[in-house]
Amino acid sequence: MLIKTKKASDVLSSEITSESTYLNRRQLLAGMAGAGLLAAGFSASASPDPHNLSARISSAAKTSFGQDEKMTPFDAITSYNNFYEFGTEKSDPAKYAHALQTDPWSVTVEGFAENTGVFPLETILKGLAFEERIYRLRCVEAWSMVIPWLGFPLKALIEKFKPTSQAKYVFFETLHAPDQMRGQKSFFSSIKWPYVEGLRMDEAVHPLTFIAVGLYGKELPKQNGAPLRLVVPWKYGFKSIKSIVKIRFTDKPLKTSWQKSGPSEYGFYSNVNPNVDHPRWSQKTERRLPNSLFSANRIDTQMFNGYEEEVAGLYKGLDLAKNF
Amino acid sequence: MASLYKSKSFWLCLFSGALLPLIYIVWAAVNNKLGAEPAKALVEFLGETALMFLIATLSISPMQKLKVFNGLVRHRRMLGLYVFFYACLHVFAYGFFLVDWQNLIEDIYKRPYVTMGFMAFVILAALALTSPKIMLRRMGRRWKPLHRLIYLAAIFVLIHVFWQVRSDYSEALIYAVFVLGLLLFRYRYFRSWGCSFLLRQKRIQKGDTNE
């Protein structure tokens, strides 16, 4: 299937408002961004940063994604998080994620693929060209943000493992380490750890599906899912699994964590859809954060979070009210 | 000791102490300390404060029986009114800052957890309205059964809390332990309710068999 990626290049970059320092850097980079330059960027070995990650991140290529969106400030993105491994309060991840050990980090690859095994993060990231994409993130709880992610398409990573034709799905797992993730110690959580999420293979290799290793020009903060996380912009935020330690190619769908926890509330697809309410609240509108007491900043939720043109083809003939 | 609870300064301490949560949250809101979604933080804080005052109010008569802080009972009405005060602010903040009024009314019949919370609020309003001494005199023997509805309101509030949990029940369970513990303490009243209910059932059944 050929999927056309929407380019918003007709929108003036002057419409972006964000942290001024960040803007300056972006304007500087704008002229020199390019895949070739990028490739040269990460061959240097003299860097004090062992993975040369921050250098690769700061020289990531600019893309036209989300240029017409007003970005959510860094502070809000990094202080208001759902990362239940660290607690269910929005402020818990920022408070407690420092206990997470992200170095060294390795990812186990299993299932229907030629290249399986345990790979250190350096190997995972080797040779991948980093780029920046400004994506909308719509939480199932009816709030949303606009985040400048840095990373690479999931497709580029998947190709490294050479999945076989039997691979119809790809599933991900978050680290399970209660000594580092205090939320996993709770006795009364309906979510069973480790956290599991997954995509159909065609969703996983879709050009919009992204793995983030950074945001706002910096390495990914731990509360946002360091060292690497999934970003699927047309699905509710909980699909975008954080701090990934396992990738599994399967021929059958597995139950995801939220499906197991509340099958009537959370389905496998979890595509953003204003026409299908969550049983406990409406999904017609969303609160774009940060907001203030006197302005909820409420906007209409768009079908597939505004990425309908790019992804609707994936779900042709599927009843989205049943397959929520 | 008893004179301490009767003193004007104790009353003043309690009265102003109960306003501290409000002062704190207004300070936090004005100084942008409520995070990326201040309205939600505000509504949740006011709701939790109301629930804590509810637990405090319910714990007064068990404390009296256990002879700890038993002079506090003379201030129970004030604590009860503070439950209603914070519940009002909670509902107001929900309708004014988080959703608009029209959505609030829609939520009451569409969202079961809001329905539960609203039913608790209606009970609290009825109790607040009948709390003045003059109402107590006027209502006579009917006053006490009405005010026992506080326990029903507490159960509604618990359900209201539980139906909002997305995955982790820890916090809700802590509230449940307190509320259910306090309900258990008053089990004799409920037993007498239960007995009279069962007796009536029996009488009805007997009536049936006689026919």
Show unreliable segments of chain A: 8-17, 28-48
Strand content of chain B: under 5%
SSE series of chain A: HHHHHEEHEEHEEHEEEEHEEH
User: How many beta-strand runs of chain A?
Assistant: 12
Shape of chain B: globular
Q: Number of DSSP helices of chain A?
A: 10
* Strand residues, percent of chain A: 15-25%
Mean pLDDT of chain B: 88
SSE arrangement of chain B, N to C: HHHHHHHHHHHHH
Rg of chain B, please? 20 Å
Structural class of chain B: mainly alpha
Q: Shape of chain A, please?
A: globular
Largest interface: A-B, 29 and 21 residues
User: Residue ranges of chain B: pLDDT <50 for 5 or more in a row?
Assistant: none
Topology diagram in text:
The complex is a heterodimer of chains A (324) and B (211).
Chain A lengths: L19 H11 L4 H7 L11 H6 L15 H6 L12 H5 L9 E6 L5 E4 H5 L5 E8 L4 E11 H8 L7 E6 L21 E5 H4 L5 E6 L2 E2 L9 E3 L12 E7 L6 H5 L23 E4 L9 E3 L7 H4 L13
Parallel strand pairs in A: 1-10, 4-11
Antiparallel strand pairs in A: 1-2, 3-4, 4-7, 5-6, 5-10, 7-8, 7-9, 11-12
Chain B lengths: L1 H5 L1 H10 L2 H11 L7 H21 L1 H6 L10 H23 L2 H10 L1 H18 L3 H7 L3 H5 L1 H14 L7 H16 L1 H24 L1
Short structural summary:
The complex is a heterodimer of chains A (324) and B (211). Chain A has helices spanning 20-30, 35-41, 53-58, 74-79, 92-96, 121-125, 154-161, 201-204, 257-261, 308-311, and strands at 106-111, 117-120, 131-138, 143-153, 169-174, 196-200, 210-215, 218-219, 229-231, 244-250, 285-288, 298-300. Chain A is an alpha+beta fold and 324 residues long.
Protein described:
The complex is a heterodimer of chains A (324) and B (211). In chain A, strands 3, 4, 7, 8, 9, 11 and 12 form a 7-stranded mixed beta sheet that branches. A 5-stranded mixed beta sheet of chain A has the order 2-1-10-5-6. By secondary structure, chain A is α+β, with helices and mostly antiparallel strands. Chain A has 10 helices and 12 strands. Chain B is an all-alpha fold. The longest helix of chain B has 24 residues, at 187-210. Chain B starts with a helix and ends with a helix. The mean pLDDT of chain B is 88. At the A-B interface, loops of A face helix 4 and helix 12 of B.
